[in-house]
């Protein structure tokens, strides 16, 4: 079978019945999708298959033969982050980071489908993704910002915003 | 059969770090010939942001821009000891070690700059990456030039080390257990009010709002502190109504086989959360900081339990407050009665309102 991952086509033989997650991580070496629960329950393994978010831990790799697969590695580059990645950075939407790639791919697809910054709609769209660190509010803020098309100056996010502790630790 | 709303409040205090137990963190810093700063520390950043915070502390203490700092906690060969990221200590204890190391580096930079500028180091200060003569800001030398002079001219390496260790406390009165040191270096305080909706038919408790107030000592990076508090609220909500550490009712053979049988809060379980931070500085933490990591999930469960009592008049004395526990408590509900100075609610929990000026809870045998 041929799997096109982030624009590069890989020929993989004899692994049609393995999960797409295992083939991506172990055969192709793309480790953005995370193995969380391996039961389709946590969302950490989410990838885009022809633009649609799919739990790669539940999908036999053979089903993805001939499709275009996008993982977090394909969203943007370190030099040019995708809008959703910029929003996650700016809003501190990641802590340990394990859920982040799945969250961003699902959010990217939600915005692609015309999703808005409506709080409840974002909750609905990302409801199947579990995060144990953030309490979700900063993730929802980030997705809403990306849905609105907010632009960010990331050089001021971690660096400039809070450096002067002597003046009270705030903005 | 109806839904009942209720509101409850809880207040907590929380100690920071493993005080009295010999709980060291260490840090060392070297300055590269271009003035950029390498920080080596063993603190594991588990998503709490300790790399960011300690880098901020070093940058602030020395007086250089944040992005000059490279923070390396990648291996135990190059990094000194840090006992770990626990007990809310990463900023309070390890951050203090970073501050001490940075102070040594600052002193060394000032000494070498003093030689270069022929000015007494005590008349110099470091402002935004430049060593400046106090009162004569046109006389200055960049930290990069100082580091280059140290490397190529003076034959010196600018380094600093810092260690933070609360000494062991010795017991001075075996009768009472009194020790010779204050019990804790920093105590944080917090309060939380919870609003809940309880369905007396299904027993389901839905938390609709949490209002929280935390004394954090000093919020060096308020967004990161907020992240700890919001995450803690989610964990506290989970402890209060969803998550059971031993979810194997009635016995271990019945443990869940699926991820979903452990009820971690999802996005749609989250209520409106309003948070207030109070900066009440500690004496011992870097820049007055206290710990926020662990106390952030403490006040929600008791506040939720109090709100459930406000809603349906029964005290649930076990967590999490599951539908089954709510329904059993409602079944067993009896009117509270007085026994002398105690108010006994439902045979499970009493409130003694007069003991030592506070309220104590008693569970009769």
Low-confidence stretches of chain A: 159-171
Please bin the fraction of helical residues of chain A.
Answer: 25-40%
CATH class term of the largest domain in chain A: Mainly Alpha
CATH superfamily of the largest domain in chain A: [2Fe-2S]-binding domain
Overall morphology of chain B: elongated
Number of helices of chain B: 6
What oligomeric state is this?
heterodimer
Query: Which architecture of the largest domain in chain A per CATH?
Result: Orthogonal Bundle
The termini of chain B sit apart by 32 Å
Calculate the mean pLDDT score of chain A and round it: 91
Arrangement of strands in the largest sheet of chain B = 1-11-12-13
The secondary-structure element order of chain A is EEHEEEHHHH
Structural Rg of chain A: 17 Å
Q: What is the CATH topology descriptor of the largest domain in chain B?
A: Aldehyde Oxidoreductase, domain 4
**Strand content of the residues of chain B, in percent?**
25-35%
Layout of helices and strands, plus pairs?
The complex is a heterodimer of chains A (171) and B (365).
Chain A: E1 2-5, E2 8-11, H1 20-28, E3 46-49, E4 52-55, E5 68-70, H2 83-90, H3 100-112, H4 119-126, H5 137-148
Parallel strand pairs in A: 1-5
Antiparallel strand pairs in A: 1-2, 3-4, 3-5
Helix pairs in contact in A: 2-5, 3-5
Chain B: E1 3-15, E2 25-31, E3 37-41, H1 50-62, E4 69-72, H2 90-117, E5 124-127, E6 130-133, E7 136-142, H3 143-154, E8 159-164, E9 171-173, E10 178-179, E11 187-199, E12 205-215, H4 222-242, E13 272-278, H5 300-312, H6 323-331, E14 337-339, E15 342-344, E16 350-352, E17 360-362
Parallel strand pairs in B: 3-4, 12-13
Antiparallel strand pairs in B: 1-11, 2-3, 2-8, 5-6, 6-7, 9-10, 11-12, 14-15, 15-16, 16-17
Helix pairs in contact in B: 1-2, 2-3, 4-5
């Amino acid at each position: 079978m041929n799997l096109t991952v982030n624009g590069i086509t890989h020929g993989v033989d004899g692994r049609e019945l393995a999960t797409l997650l295992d083939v991506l991580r172990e055969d192709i070496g793309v480790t953005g999708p995370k193995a969380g629960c391996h039961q389709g329950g946590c969302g950490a393994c989410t990838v885009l298959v022809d633009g649609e978010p799919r739990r790669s831990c539940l999908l036999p790799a053979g089903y993805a033969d001939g499709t275009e697969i996008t993982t977090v590695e394909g969203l943007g580059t370190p030099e040019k982050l995708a809008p959703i990645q910029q929003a996650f950075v700016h809003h501190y939407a990641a802590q340990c980071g394990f859920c982040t790639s799945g969250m961003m791919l699902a959010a990217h697809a939600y915005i692609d489908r015309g999703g808005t910054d409506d709080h409840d709609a974002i909750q609905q769209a990302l409801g199947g993704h579990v995060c144990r660190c953030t309490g979700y509010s900063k993730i929802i803020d980030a997705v809403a910002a990306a849905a609105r098309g907010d632009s960010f100056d990331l050089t001021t996010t971690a660096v400039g915003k809070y450096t002067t502790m002597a003046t009270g630790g705030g903005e | 059969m109806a839904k009942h709303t209720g509101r409850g409040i809880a207040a907590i205090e929380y100690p920071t770090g493993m005080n009295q137990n010999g709980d060291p963190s260490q840090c060392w810093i070297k300055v590269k010939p271009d003035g950029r700063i390498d920080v080596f520390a063993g603190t594991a950043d588990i998503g709490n942001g300790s790399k960011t915070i300690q880098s901020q502390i070093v940058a602030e203490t020395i007086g250089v821009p944040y992005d000059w700092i490279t923070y390396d906690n990648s291996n135990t060969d190059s990094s000194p000891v840090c006992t770990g990221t626990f007990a809310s200590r990463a900023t309070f204890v390890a951050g203090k070690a970073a501050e001490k190391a940075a102070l040594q580096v600052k002193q060394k930079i000032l000494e070498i700059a003093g030689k270069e500028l022929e000015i007494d180091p005590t008349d110099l200060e470091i402002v935004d990456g430049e060593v400046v003569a106090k009162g004569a800001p046109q006389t200055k030398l960049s930290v990069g030039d100082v580091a280059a002079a140290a490397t190529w001219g003076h034959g010196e390496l600018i380094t600093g080390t810092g260690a933070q260790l609360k000494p062991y406390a010795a017991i001075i009165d075996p009768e009472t257990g009194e020790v010779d040191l204050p019990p804790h270096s920093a105590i944080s305080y917090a309060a939380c009010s919870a609003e809940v909706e309880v369905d007396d038919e299904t027993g389901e408790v839905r938390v609709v709002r949490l209002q929280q107030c935390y004394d954090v000592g000093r919020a060096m990076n308020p967004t990161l502190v907020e992240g700890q508090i919001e995450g803690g609220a989610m964990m506290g909500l989970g402890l209060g109504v969803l998550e059971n550490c031993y979810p194997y009712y009635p016995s271990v053979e019945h443990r869940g086989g699926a991820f979903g049988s452990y009820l971690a809060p999802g996005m749609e379980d989250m209520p409106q959360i309003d948070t207030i931070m109070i900066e009440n500085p500690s004496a011992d933490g870097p820049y007055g900081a206290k710990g926020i990591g662990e106390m952030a999930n403490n006040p929600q469960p008791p506040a939720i339990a109090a709100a459930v009592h406000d809603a349906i008049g029964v005290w649930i004395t076990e967590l999490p407050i599951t539908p089954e526990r709510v329904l059993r408590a409602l079944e067993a509900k009896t009117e509270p009665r007085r026994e002398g100075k105690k108010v006994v609610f439902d045979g499970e929990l009493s409130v003694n309102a007069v003991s030592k000026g506070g309220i104590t809870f008693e569970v009769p045998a």
